[in-house]
Inverse folding.
């Protein structure tokens, strides 16, 4: 009976470390990261006039195993027809490392 408990304890410990490792696999990848929840907005470029239009483009990650999307400045500008980019911000969201989203948000004319 004691041997079975040791096996279960070791299995749970290994499982816990695997989960903790996986949590960090699906993160926004930029800025501060929370192990349970992350919601950040970070400005990376800007001038005083933000412009009349706002466009965004996002990438996504699921379990750190599947990642897809195009969060380039070009994709964000093309989404609303911005020719002159005035500001670039990054917005990140991550939940328990299971789901992560990183968006490039631009403003301009």
């Amino acid at each position: 009976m004691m041997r079975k408990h040791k096996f279960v304890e070791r299995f749970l410990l290994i499982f816990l470390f695997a989960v903790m490792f996986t949590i960090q696999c699906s993160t926004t990848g930029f800025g501060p990261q929370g192990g349970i929840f992350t919601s950040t907005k970070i400005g990376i470029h800007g001038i005083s006039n933000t412009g009349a239009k706002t466009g965004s483009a996002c990438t996504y990650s699921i379990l750190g195993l599947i990642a897809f999307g195009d969060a380039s400045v070009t994709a964000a500008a093309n989404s609303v027809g911005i020719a002159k980019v005035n500001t670039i911000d990054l917005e990140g969201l991550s939940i328990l490392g299971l789901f992560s989203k990183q968006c490039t948000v631009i403003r301009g004319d």
